[in-house]
Amino acid sequence: MKDDYEETFLGKYSSSDFGSFYREYESCIIDLKNAPCEFKKLLKKDIKNNLKIDDIFQSRDQLENHRKFFRKNNKANDYVTDYWLSKVNKKSNIIRLFNNIEFNEFTIEQAFDILSVNFTTASFLEMPYLLLKYGIILVYEKSIPGLNVDGVVYKNSNGNPVIALSIRHNRLDNFWFTLAHEISHIILHYDQLDTIIIDDFDKLDEEHIEYEANRLAADLLIPRATWRSSPVKSSSKSYDVISYATEINVHPAIIAGRIRRETKNYKILTDIIFKTDLRKELF
User: Where are the beta strands (DSSP E) in 44-97?
Assistant: First the structure.
């Protein structure tokens, strides 16, 4: 009997034999049963909304080799992250299915042109369409309790970069920096994206590739020479920031976010930072 099913292949799910498939699936079910109660409540809610265990299993299988940059904190966080990634993976596969897209390369100049529309009202809604023209899939997947992820980037089986943003922090400055950071990984580290990169900006990350991506992201949003001569680098006045933003055609929230970060004063410019309800707009 063992020999019979070991030679049966399930192309729909993978190239592995039935025995391996069954053992992997059984392992997934056991893990789900042992998951924390908070996670089970989340899962139960989404199963009612047509999320299937298969979705989690297939995504887990596809993402299994993408773990190098996944900083594990605890078992509960692992479950929540895998669960969120399964939803990202499902959405990105649907986008790929209905769009004939090919990725060749993405340059700093192209990234700068796309990100420069940030000054336009609700330009964040245009980003998935603008990036898709270059073969880059952008997914917005709402954050869930216990998720310590701002954004991820990886390469799918067709070679298309996939970016996902959680909007964990409901702020425009965080949105634009996270997007610019993940785009920077595509420009600088495309060859390394067979391994998923999972970013949590609440943590200080000293890895070289993260430093490189942070540096390029800052320059893509506000060119280095422009920021070096900026008269508002330490300003706490909203009027000054908005006036300067209009002058250089950059969204005020991006400038306000950079001032807050560099001065380490997160009590200032809140009227600019929280002016737009991103979650309401996107979800």
Answer: none
Which residue is listed with tokens 């192309």?
Answer: 11
Tokens at residue 9, please?
């292949």
Strand partners, 153: 163, 197
Taking the domains of the chain in order of start, what are their residue ranges? Answer: 35-282
Tell me the C-alpha distance between 51 and 80, whole Å. Answer: 15
Q: How far apart are CA 167 and CA 86, in angstroms?
A: 17
Please state whether the predicted TM-score (pTM) of the whole model is above 0.85.
no
Place of tokens 């009997």: 1
Q: Rounded CA gap, 239 and 228, in Å?
A: 20
Residue pair 89/63 in contact (Cβ under 8 Å)? The answer is yes
Tens place of pLDDT per residue across the chain (283 aa): 444 333 334 444 444 455 665 566 566 666 666 666 666 666 666 555 555 555 555 555 544 444 433 444 444 467 788 888 888 988 998 999 888 899 999 999 999 999 999 988 789 999 999 999 999 999 999 998 888 899 999 999 899 999 999 999 999 999 999 999 999 999 999 999 998 998 888 876 668 899 999 999 999 999 999 999 999 999 999 999 999 999 999 999 999 999 999 999 999 999 999 999 999 999 8
For the stretch 13-17, contacts whose Cβ atoms lie closer than 8 Å and that sit 24 or more positions apart, written own/partner, are 13/58, 13/61, 14/61
Q: Which amino acid is at 274?
A: F
Which ranges in 133-197 belong to alpha helices (H)?
Answer: 172-189
